[in-house]
Write a structure and sequence with these properties.
Length: 308
């Protein structure tokens, strides 16, 4: 049994095996209805709890559909409606859920909650986003890049905007899969120094470039995300919008890249804020492939969690 908690704490060979399996699972389903069962049913007789302490469209739907395609069943639980939201400890929640279900996916705030859940659960635990990281998203993003452009190793990824949880998981992947990352954004919203250090220690080139037009030179992929994450206080909205506006991904920024770089956004997007609709719907955008690939990547992750 394995927990899938973060990209930097998962073995590189395992990450690669999951990415390969995700693509094979996707290929095998081509042309089939979404509800068709997979050829083998690794989750037959299994129940997976999907616990949400924050909203979700993609994570909730893609995990639910993925479990069903693999022959299992899901329980979708809202943290606020559980005793967890009314004072029960995460350790006791982990012990209790482990008696009922075969796997737990959780979306939460503090990464400590995820780690405590994993420590006390006797079934696999999957990180469906915390304030600090979003590893399932980046597995889907790497899969999407490689589907369009081949191996990501040695390529250049530019993150424009807030150095948030999704950015940290990208940096973890840069270290593990050896690609370069350039961050362009305001100094006060710089990426997590530990994620930067991890990527550098593993031999990835990580650059901080204040000028977005310079940053995108030579990029193979340009990525952004919302200017205000779910864990950020609403009071920060006006200040962040002012700080982040120069890092909007728009036609001028895409045109400053000579490489026909792909454009990614994990979604949900605030159109014409962090990225313009012209870029979101433009020829280099793969945002809906990313969303689809959450399904395939997470199916490979769940199989790995069960030891498959
Ligand atoms: N990208 C992502 O995780 O989307 P949701 O918040 O809709 O799950
Ligand atoms: N950075 C965003 C990602 C949403 C999928 C957030 O945490 O709200």
């Amino acid at each position: 049994m394995n927990h899938f908690l973060d990209i930097h704490t998962t073995d590189v060979a395992d990450l690669r095996a999951m990415l390969m399996q995700a693509q094979a699972l996707k290929d095998a389903r081509a042309g089939q209805p979404k509800g068709a069962l997979d050829g083998d049913l690794p989750l037959k007789d299994h129940i997976v709890a999907l616990v949400f302490e924050k909203p979700s469209t993609r994570t909730r739907t893609s995990f639910d559909v993925g479990v069903r395609q693999m022959g299992g069943q899901t329980l979708v639980l809202s943290g606020a409606e559980m005793q967890l939201g009314h004072g029960e400890s995460i350790a006791d929640t982990a012990r209790v859920l482990s008696r009922y279900v075969d796997m737990i996916m959780i979306r939460t705030f503090d990464p400590e909650t995820l780690h405590e859940l994993a420590e006390h659960a006797t079934v696999p635990v999957i990180n469906g986003l915390t304030d600090a990281s979003h590893p399932c998203q980046i597995m889907a993003d790497v899969m999407t890049f490689e589907e369009h452009r081949g191996p990501i190793t040695g390529k250049k990824v530019v993150w424009s905007g807030d150095g948030n949880n999704v950015c940290s998981s990208f940096l973890h992947a840069a270290g593990q899969l050896r690609f370069d990352m350039t961050f362009t954004g305001p100094p006060t919203l710089a990426p997590d120094p530990q994620a930067v250090a991890f990527a550098r220690e593993r031999g990835a080139r990580v650059t901080i470039e204040r000028d977005p037009l310079v940053a995108v030179q030579g990029a193979d992929l340009i990525v952004t995300d919302t200017w205000l994450s779910m864990h950020d206080p609403q009071e920060a909205r006006a200040r962040r919008h002012n700080q982040l506006r120069p890092y909007q991904v728009n036609d001028a920024l895409m045109a400053a890249n000579e490489n026909q770089a792909l454009f990614m956004h994990c979604l949900p997007a605030h159109r014409d804020e962090e990225a313009t609709s012209t870029v979101m719907d433009g020829p280099n955008s793969v945002v809906f492939d990313e969303a689809e690939n959450r399904l395939h990547a997470q199916k490979a992750i769940m199989r790995w969690c069960l030891g498959g």
